[in-house]
Write a structure and sequence with these properties.
single chain, alpha+beta
C-alpha cells in the first residue's frame, strides 16, 4: 500500500481523528498537536473512531499526499497508547494496516 522508504519515521495519532479532515487540516493538527513539521519527510497516520478508516499524510516535494483506506469488513487493531502520538516502524505500520494486532506480537531476532 505504501510507496516509501523503510527508514521514514512514522507517527500515529493516539486518539481517533475526524475522517472528514483533509490534508491541510491534518497538517495543521500535526503542527499544533504533534509539534512536528508536516512538510518534513515523515509519515503521519490517523485512525477514525470506528476503527475501519485510516488516513496517511506525507509531504512529497511540492505538496501533500493523503492516502485513505476504508475497510469493507473488520477493524484495524490499533494499539492503545497514552499521549498524543507514538512512533512505529514502517514494517509495523504495514502489519497494522494488514490487520495484525501489534500488542501481542513478538518479533523474531536475527541470528
Amino acid at each position: 500500500m505504501l510507496i516509501t522508504s523503510s527508514d521514514v519515521p512514522v507517527w500515529v495519532a493516539s486518539q481517533t481523528t475526524d475522517m472528514r479532515k483533509g490534508c491541510f487540516s491534518l497538517a495543521a493538527f500535526v503542527q499544533q498537536e504533534f509539534e512536528l513539521d508536516p512538510k518534513s519527510s515523515q509519515l503521519f497516520v490517523f485512525f477514525g473512531a470506528g476503527g475501519t478508516k485510516v488516513k496517511l499524510l506525507q509531504w512529497d516535494r511540492n505538496g501533500f499526499v493523503l492516502t485513505y483506506k476504508c475497510l469493507a469488513d473488520g477493524r484495524f487493531r490499533v494499539p492503545k497508547v497514552g499521549g498524543k502520538k507514538y512512533k512505529l516502524s514502517m514494517s509495523d505500520l504495514n502489519l497494522l494496516l494488514e490487520g495484525i494486532d501489534l500488542t501481542n506480537k513478538q518479533r523474531l531476532r536475527a541470528v
